[in-house]
Design goal:
The structure holds 2 protein chains of 2 kinds.
Chain A: E1 3-7, H1 16-23, E2 29-32, H2 45-51, E3 57-61, H3 62-67, E4 78-81, H4 83-92, E5 95-99
Parallel strand pairs in A: 1-2, 1-5, 2-3, 3-4
Chain B: E1 5-10, H1 19-31, E2 36-41, E3 78-81, H2 82-87, E4 99-102, E5 108-111, E6 113-116, H3 118-126, E7 130-133
Parallel strand pairs in B: 1-2, 1-7, 2-3, 3-6
Antiparallel strand pairs in B: 4-5
The chains are: A alpha/beta, B alpha/beta.
Chain lengths: 100, 134
């Protein structure tokens, strides 16, 4: 079973991102959307957690990153996807867990 | 009418919730009443000021250019908390360069953003007559 996790809250204002990382298994994908995209930026506690999360793929929704002016701050190892890519991720995984 | 010191505290990132936009609307209304207005950006509120915001692909209005117009409304005390920037891996260079023109000094352009420590911001907050939180 592969799971797609989506996170839409800022890692600095909610524990949603931490809860997701605690329960995401190796082989799963975490897609950061809306205010969740702040976890995809470099030089902070969230980027350290992503760097240390072995076996989990991280993606970020490009339109939400662009809206917030943070494309240039994207941390290494995170794949940017568009809305079509979001749909593909949903199709490729067995289940989707939306952390709210 | 006596002039009061108003501070608007901004703690939310833009676009994910409506707080940032609502705060900006209220600041602009308040500015029309010739009060002594300050803005503070702390926590995720510092993300409101990032430069290069482009909301075309998410179908929401990009209100970030409005911050650069605040100087024209005599809103030129914009406090950004240093610790909040650092916790997020940001520096002042990641934020818009906000300026105002000082009519008492031949319209010299001056910086509106004041980078302050948490302790310094606490002192500024302590001086206010009215504090509005977003």
């Amino acid at each position: 079973m592969t799971m797609l996790h989506t996170v839409n809250k800022s890692p600095f204002e909610s524990n949603t991102f931490d809860t997701c990382l605690g329960l995401a298994k190796s082989g799963s994908t975490v897609l950061l959307i809306e205010d969740g995209v702040y976890a995809a930026t470099s030089g902070n506690a969230a980027s350290d957690k992503i760097a240390n999360a072995n076996g989990i793929s991280f993606c970020v929704l490009g339109p939400d990153l662009q809206a917030r002016g943070l494309e240039s701050k994207l941390a290494d190892g995170i794949k940017v996807v568009d809305y079509e890519g979001f749909v593909n991720l949903v199709a490729e995984h067995d289940t989707v867990q939306s952390w709210l | 009418m006596a002039i009061k010191k108003f501070m608007y505290i901004n703690r939310k990132a833009p676009y994910g919730t409506i707080y940032a936009l609502e705060s900006l609307e209220v600041v602009l209304v308040g500015a029309a009443f010739d009060q002594d207005v300050s803005l503070a950006f702390i926590g995720d509120g510092v993300y409101e000021l990032t430069k290069g915001q482009d909301t075309k692909a998410i179908g929401q209005k990009n209100f970030s250019p409005v911050y650069s117009a605040l100087g024209d409304y005599d809103v030129n005390k914009i406090y950004v908390e240093k610790e909040s920037l650092e916790e997020r891996g940001l520096t002042l260079d990641d934020l818009q360069h906000l300026v105002w023109e000082d009519e008492d000094e031949d319209y010299a352009e001056k910086d509106s953003i004041r980078l302050v420590s948490r302790a310094e911001l606490a002192d500024v907050l302590d001086e206010q007559d009215i504090v509005l939180s977003f």
